[in-house]
Amino acid sequence: MVTCIKEAIAAGVRYIESGPGHYNYKIQLRATEHPLGSMLIAPGRTMAGVKAQLLARYGDLLHLLYYRIWFSKIAPCLPLPRRPLLRAWIRFHV
How far is it, in rounded angstroms, from Cα 62 to Cα 54? Predict the structure, then answer.
């Protein structure tokens, strides 16, 4: 990472986007963190808005139960082979 940053500086780059999340290396590099938001866009029909909201809530629940609890906390402690992330989780978090 340091090599990439050095090369970017040498090329005249002034800003680097290193993705969402709070990490110590960002603090050590005196980076400025900005809040990350999302926007849900749906057609003007009532049922379409309801479906969009339900899917958004499903994505939030999937992230909590599957990724934060199972994939990040429980599965690494079990003697099971590591598997790739679920496609459903990837679709909701791209």
Answer: 12
Question: For residues 66 and 64, what is the distance between their CA atoms, to the nearest angstrom?
Answer: 6
Q: Please tell me whether the overall predicted TM-score, pTM, comes out greater than 0.90 for this model.
A: no
Range of the domain at 12: 1-37
Residues 50 and 91 in one domain: yes
Domain shared by 55 and 81, yes or no: yes
Can you read off the two tokens belonging to residue 10? 């040498």
Q: What's the total number of domains in the chain?
A: 2
Fill in the DSSP letter of residue 71.
Answer: I
Render 21-55 in DSSP notation, one character per residue.
S--HHHHHTTPPP----------SSHHHHHHHHHH
pLDDT per position in the chain (94 positions), as tens?
778 888 888 999 888 877 777 888 888 878 888 888 878 888 888 899 899 999 989 999 999 999 999 999 999 999 989 888 888 888 887 6
